[in-house]
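Sequence, structure tokens reproduced for absentees:
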Amino acid sequence: MNILNGKAYSQEIEKELSIEVARLKDFNITPCLYVILVGNDPASFSYVTMKNKACNRVGIESKIIRFEESVSQDELLNEIYKLNNDKKVNGILVQLPLPKHINSSAILESIDINKDVDGFHPYNMGRLFCNLDSLFPATPLGIMMLLNHYNIDVKGKDVVIVGASNIVGKPLSLLMLNAGASVSICHILTKDVKKYTKDADIVCVGVGKVKLLSDDMIKDGAIIIDIGINKLDDGSIVGDVDFKNVSIKASYITPVPGGVGPMTISALLSNTIKATKLQYKAIK
């Protein structure tokens, strides 16, 4: 069993991105990311704080705009409109989930496609669907970066993705498909998840259920990508995979924490720099 160490690789990526940012600053350009945070959810605040610190480490200017839970949809749309039209702002990220009275789709669709560093705008999702270069969703992109770093070629592999969200499952399936994998997606209505996972070369799981994937659900030598994040009663963080038992059979596996999470942030930083370059077309 080999650990897919996202934490270690993300540190390498940050060094490379720091050089990229320094080069942009030679042109008097400082990449700038604005994060919109609504409400006081501890998990969301923690994620935003980690993103902010990562930006600071590589030299990206990072700003957090906080709104109360009661904020209206129009207020959020007005704020995004201002950021869209501010040339000093290169990336806009709205931390999800949003309160139920806010139409998340309307908010995400209002973001300038060239500042959509989370890659959730239908335009960017459409380019992903058509296998065209774009700003891709950070978690799926981070997973592909991690696999590539460990020289794991998905071409010709049977890949099963458990979880069909617009944020992770669906875009990850497209990235895998575009890279030449044969992809199956399982979700809440799938009758027998084990039927799909037991013969898969790569299994990706991200639904938020502790020990969803057990050792009897995979074959020997399978590659396991654990995207889940669950907080136990004792305060510890675990994924969706029964790591202790599954790791014995797996050839590669991501830990939680320290696997996909750091790669998500690295992909976000990379997207922010990419978005900056899109806005300054002369710079490659």
User: Anything to note?
Assistant: DSSP finds ten helices and eleven strands in the chain. The domain at 24-114 is CATH 3.40.50.10860 (Rossmann fold). The first strand starts at residue 2 and ends at 3. The two ends are 39 Å apart (CA to CA).
